[in-house]
Amino acid sequence: MIKRFKKGLAVVGSTTIDEIVDNDRSFLKLGGVTTYSGLTYRRHGINTLIVSNLAEQDLAILDQLYEEDIVVCREESEHTTRFVNYIRGDNRSQELPQQAGTIQASQIHAVLDRVDSLHLGPLHPLDIEWEAASLLRNSNRLIFLDIQGLTRMVKNKQVFTSISEYMEIALSIAHIVKANGTEYSAVLDFFRVSPAELMLKFNIEEIVVTQGEKGGFVQKQSGDTFHYQAEMVEFAADPTGAGDVFFAAYLVSRYSAKKEIPDACRYAAQIAARQVAGKYITSDKLRLK
Asked: What is the pLDDT along the chain (289 residues), one digit of tens a residue?
């Protein structure tokens, strides 16, 4: 069993400005794994740092994080990462019109003594400098990895599904990996391995797979697989960030509260359902002017 969080945890990745275009309405939200996972960790009493790069003119978006005592370790960038999410009924598409500067290995090194765990949440392949891999591999820190950004390719600002050349490096340093169902299948196809072979190849201890309203499962390196059901939501306000919230809640329950996998999944599903219903990280916390 992995030790519980002691010093704290750093979430590494872009903190974003997300434009949501839902049919005929449009609005801006604070986003990124750093936001959704970071707020979830902090609300569970975990000392939380965020490592991100932002443009000087966008620093006000961090106020929502400062209000909940999250420490932001940043460097100035020409741009802040921005996504545009188009929602047309059940159809969704995404654009990435601008990207912040890559988070450097030196930035990660600067926070290592302050934490005993790192949550890597890249939103695109160049979000993090993967030369940090050797640093992290030898750091004796717990590494949690969300692979979503490593399953994306950006071409002419459009976001497409593609496995990044950095996927192998990232998987090789991760103890616990999170993916949605589509991302997980894409990785297995890319490496042409079974789930068990993938975990042995990269020495991954657990893989957490989220599948929205279908629930999901957690697979251990031993081969044991634990399925969980999604919590019912009467009215789905916005599913954005639910997977990030689930993963952070799962990790807190599993490795801080020391719950077994089924109990950790049930707890995380409850928190994720509150997020989908708009009752956890509420819209007033995320909405930007």
From this structure: 344 688 999 999 999 999 988 777 889 999 999 999 999 999 999 999 999 999 999 999 999 999 999 999 999 999 999 999 887 766 778 899 999 999 999 999 999 999 999 999 999 999 999 999 989 998 999 999 999 999 999 888 888 999 999 999 999 999 999 999 999 999 999 999 999 999 999 999 999 999 999 999 999 999 899 999 999 888 877 788 999 999 999 999 999 989 999 999 999 999 999 999 999 999 999 999 7
What angle (nearest 5°) sits at the alpha carbon of residue 138, between those of residues 165 and 16?
50
Question: What span, in angstroms and rounded, lies between the C-alpha atoms of 198 and 95?
Answer: 30
Nearest one of 103, 82, 79, 80 to 94, comparing CA atoms: 82
Q: With a threshold of 0.90, does the pTM exceed it?
A: yes
Structure tokens at 129: 């400098």
CATH number of 9-231: 3.40.1190.20, 3.40.50.970, 2.40.110.10, 3.30.300.10? 3.40.1190.20
Contact criterion met (CB below 8 Å) for 12 and 149: no
Q: How far apart are CA 101 and CA 127, in angstroms?
A: 7
Residue 174, CA distances (Å) to 97, 159, 205 in order: 29, 25, 8
Assess contact for 58 and 17: CB atoms under 8 A: yes
Report how far Cα 236 is from the mean position of its chain's Cα atoms. Answer: 21
Domain-by-domain residue ranges, the chain? 9-231
Query: Are the C-beta atoms of residues 132 and 105 closer than 8 Å to each other?
Result: yes
